[in-house]
Structure formats: C-alpha cells, structure tokens
C-alpha cells in the first residue's frame, strides 16, 4: 500500500509498492531500445503531461466528480492518526493546514498569517494565524487548535509521532498566536513539519473515534456520506472561508486496486478520474480518445540496497561490480518511460529544487557506475567471489522492481555468475529485508517517499539508529558518516546542513551501501471533460480540486 508522504517511520518502506503494478515494458525509450544495456540517455519528460489553466465561462457551477484510488484506504480520516495516502487524499480536502505545499512542493501559509518568527537559534517559533476562519460546525479556528494539532500525534503515540517528536511544547499565546518550542534546532521544521493539518481540539477530543470517520475541518469540503469499505462522498462547504470557491460540489472516492479494472473504467467513461497510470498501460491510456494523463514529479526514491552485514556484498568492490553489471538508466527508460526518471542520489530532483538545496547533481551523476560488464567481471574476480555465486535478490512482486531484480540477475549471469530472484508480498518482504541474514538476501529493492527536506531520506534510510527499522543494509559507515547525518538533522543552518549532506552522499556513491534507482512520478488519468486538473507532487494531495493554481470543473 502507498503510505502517506512525509511521515518518516518504518512503514514508509511500503510507500512505493502500488504505483506501478506490472513488470512488462511500458515503451522502448532510448537509443539502444530494450535489448542491451547501452547508454539510453533519453529520459521522458513528465511536463508533457501537465497542462495550462482552463477556466469555465460561468463561475456558478455544481459539478460532480468520481475518483478511483489504486489501493484500499485504512479509513482513518483524522489527520492526527491517519497514515495512508488514500485516507489523506480525502482528509486533505476536509482539513486545511497551517501551511500547505504548492505544486512545486514549497510551503506557503494557509491558516497561518505569514511565516513564523524564529527565536533561540531555531528552537522557538512564534506563529500568527488568520482571524475569522471557521470549522464546518461554525467554531472559530484558534491558536489552541493549532497547538493541539502539533502535540496530539506524540501525546497519543500515533504513527505520526516521529514527524512532531522534536516539539517540546506548543502553547497558545492568545486566540491568534502560539509559541512552539523544540527540544533542539530541527532542520526540517520549516520545510515539512509546519504543514500540519489543523483539527478542532474540543470536538476531536470529545469523541476521537467518532471524529475519525466523521471529521470536521476548515477545508473546502465536508463529509456527506461514508460506507466503510465502499466509498466516501464529500460535498462542497458553501461557507468556505478562502478563495477560490470550488466549482466541484460533490466528490465520490472509491477504491479500485485492480489496475486493469481501474484503467478500463476511465477508458469506457464509467468514472471521471483515476489515480496512478501503470507503466504497462501507459501507451494504451495515452493513445485513447477522450482521456488525458496528468503527471507530476514526486519526492519518491526507489533504490537497490546491499546486505553490508553478511555475504559477498559486504565488500564495496562487489557492490560496485553489481552497479557496473547493468545500466540503471536504460532499465528505467525501457520499463517505466514517462512514469519515472533515473536518480543519481537519495535526493529526488524535486526535493533538491523545492528546498533550494543546490546540490551538485551533475557531479553525483558522474559518480554513478556506468554499464561496464568487463569491469564488473574484473572487480568480482579480484574480490575473490566464487564462480558459483548466486546472490539472493528480493523485491516487491509483480512490479518494476521485480523486473529490475531480474535484469540484474540476467546481467550477472552473462558475466559468469547468477542470481536467485524472489518476488515477495509486502508483508513477507518487510519481515525479511531487515534481518541482515545472507540466507535471506544479499540485495533488496524498496522505495521511500519523502519531501522537500533531505533529512527524511538520510536519517531514516542511513543513520545507524534506524538499522533494522527503516533499513536493512546495516551500513556502518566511514569516519563521521553517522555523526554528519545527526548533525544535519539537529542544525537550523541550511548551508551547514547542505555541506554535511554532500559529504554523506559522496560516501554513499563511493561505498555504495545502496544504489539509487529512480523516482516514480505521481500520475492520474481523467476524461477530457475534466478541466483544470493538475497532479500534485505529494500523492496525498491528489486530487487537489481547488487551490491558487487550479479549480477543477466538468465540461458537460
């Protein structure tokens, strides 16, 4: 299941499993086609599936829209506890955040009245909120509601606690201002943590269980009908406090996990919008009459990880050899086409850009291993790897990562070795990948979804404190590797953090505990009559429906 973005916990490793569901070729892209591992430098541009604004002639509209989701919801609609993307797709239309991400994944004020005042070298933040904002029940949004939204995940020990765990206290100064104190300067605070959905403290705490499935927020939509396991229906809140007012008056969410069924429904005109266009179906959807694909880059990070605890892959030269045995770029272009882009670091391009990090991406790309089977064979021979070496590679079954595992296995076979490739269910994979046991795996393929701050990637996927929690490679690091990750996390100085992350990344690329693979885009397919629809970088924000840059409507 795809899990809610921007929540750094162990369950995040499930984040990338449902987006593309089959391993067949999406389209041959690149000079060398699909038969060999050549350069394959041509990368499809997802911006071709982004469209200009489309405004209706009449502003007084009552359009209805049906949206099919690619996985079952956990059906926790209280954002304090909600932890899956598809429940949050509903909740993000019901609740407004203190801040929210725009279409470039940059935080901008929503309920907040401007950016916070920073004090105590990044340990204290003073927030002002706008006056006169109301929840759906008519209660005014106050600073106490915002403070509760910050502290409840930790106090109630929810799965979102890690996002707010550095907050020592959050207290209202008056009705429209609050003070948040951190235990230490926390680098990601102003880039991610401030995007907290605001809940009404009094209503929520009166009956948290009832609130979870019949929530009250201050967003543009409110609950109209809900049948567990079947559908959620939202209706426009006509007293919404912000502009623009949505053109859509009703939205129905249903789960349609079967890719073929979901695609068939939108192609036949039986639904309006579907989330996620599988790479295997891309050409069919793109070539269909009456349907458009909508896409956006995302902060997702897929990777090949090596067992650095036991087995032949404890040797960095063996890991480098695997990297030289195939072309990652060629594989991504061939199997995913416009649905993804190759990566050269644990930091997706949109994270680099939205956070204004200015990382040396071109230099990092030059450090990635190029396809060179002769060098791969020589490195393995020099490392003393036995001729009968057949490393076990585990991956989520039925998707492009299993296909990538098979590609690596076939290339190792071509240079005289082999591989035992095993596709697994997520439940089995999660129980297996973090054991560090060579009998379980020497390589695994997984994914992570983060945001505009690199800490979500480096701390959870590489810091020693998370070994066996969010990572299974057990990389001990060289010198100050782990100290650098922690120091970057506990610094409010972005330039200092940038230099620390550059050092960490260069070590990752040199010693290769993991090999960056690709970032999978967020995609939707919609009937052509659905106008002004734009895919958001965060999957939990889709469909955005109404914002400063879009207001979806139906051209009947």
From TrEMBL:
Annotated Gene Ontology cellular component terms: ATP-binding cassette (ABC) transporter complex; periplasmic space
Listed Acidic residues bias regions: 32-45
GO MF terms, alphabetically ordered: peptide transmembrane transporter activity
One Pfam short name: SBP_bac_5
Chain intervals for the UniProt region annotation (Disordered): 29-63
GO biological process, one term: peptide transport
Domain Solute-binding protein family: 106-467
Keywords for the protein's UniProt record, in alphabetical order: Signal, Transport
Assigned protein family: Belongs to the bacterial solute-binding protein 5 family.
Designated name of the protein: ABC transporter periplasmic protein
């Amino acid at each position: 299941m795809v899990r809610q973005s921007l929540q750094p916990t162990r369950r995040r490793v499930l984040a990338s499993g449902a987006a593309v569901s089959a391993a067949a070729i999406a389209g041959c892209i690149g000079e060398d086609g699909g038969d060999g591992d050549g350069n394959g430098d041509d990368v499809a541009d997802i911006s071709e599936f982004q469209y200009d604004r489309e405004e209706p002639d009449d502003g007084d509209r009552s359009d209805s829209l049906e949206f099919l989701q690619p996985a079952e919801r956990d059906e926790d609609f209280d954002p304090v506890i909600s932890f899956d993307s598809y429940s949050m797709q509903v909740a993000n239309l019901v609740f407004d955040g203190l801040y929210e991400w725009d279409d470039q994944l940059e935080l901008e004020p929503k309920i907040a009245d401007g950016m916070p005042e920073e004090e105590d070298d990044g340990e204290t933040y003073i927030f002002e909120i706008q006056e006169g904002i109301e929840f759906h029940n008519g209660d005014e949004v106050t600073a106490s509601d915002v403070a509760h939204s910050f502290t409840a995940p930790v106090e109630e020990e929810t799965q979102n606690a890690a996002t707010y765990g550095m907050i020592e206290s959050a207290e209202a100064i008056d009705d429209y201002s609050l003070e948040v104190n951190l235990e230490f300067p926390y680098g990601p605070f102003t880039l991610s943590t401030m995007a907290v959905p605001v809940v009404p403290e009094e209503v929520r705490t009166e009956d948290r269980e009832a609130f979870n499935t019949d929530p009250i927020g201050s967003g543009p939509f409110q609950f109209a009908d809900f049948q567990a396991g079947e559908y959620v229906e939202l209706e426009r809140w006509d007293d919404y406090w912000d502009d623009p007012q949505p053109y859509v008056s009703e939205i129905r969410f249903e789960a349609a996990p079967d890719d073929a069924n979901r695609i068939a429904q939108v192609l036949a005109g039986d639904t309006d919008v579907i989330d996620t266009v599988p790479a295997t179906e891309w050409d069919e959807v793109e070539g269909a009459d009456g349907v458009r694909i909508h896409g956006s880059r995302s902060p997702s990070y897929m990777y090949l990880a090596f067992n650095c605890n036991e087995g032949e892959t404890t040797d960095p030269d063996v890991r480098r050899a695997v990297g030289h045995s195939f072309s990652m770029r060629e594989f991504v272009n061939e199997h995913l086409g416009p649905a993804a882009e190759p990566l050269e670091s644990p930091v997706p391009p949109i994270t680099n850009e939205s956070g204004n990090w200015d990382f040396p991406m071109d230099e990092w790309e030059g450090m990635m291993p190029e396809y060179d089977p002769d060098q791969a064979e020589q490195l393995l021979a020099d490392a003393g790897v036995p001729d009968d070496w057949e490393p076990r590679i585990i991956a989520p079954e039925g998707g492009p990562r299993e296909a990538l595992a098979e590609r690596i296995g076939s290339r190792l076979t071509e240079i005289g070795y082999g591989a035992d490739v095993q596709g697994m269910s997520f439940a089995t994979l999660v129980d297996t990948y973090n054991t560090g046991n060579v009998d379980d795996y020497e390589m695994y393929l997984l994914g992570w979804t983060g945001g505009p701050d690199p800490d979500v990637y480096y701390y959870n996927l590489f810091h020693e404190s998370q070994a066996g929690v969010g990572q299974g490679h057990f990389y001990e690091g060289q010198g100050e590797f782990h100290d650098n990750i922690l120091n970057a996390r506990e610094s409010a100085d972005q330039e200092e953090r940038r230099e620390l992350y550059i050092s960490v990344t260069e070590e990752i690329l040199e010693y290769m505990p993991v090999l960056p693979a690709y970032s999978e885009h967020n995609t939707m397919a919609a009937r052509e009559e659905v106008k002004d629809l734009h895919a958001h970088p965060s999957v939990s924000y889709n469909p955005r429906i109404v914002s400063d840059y879009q207001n979806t409507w139906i051209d009947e």
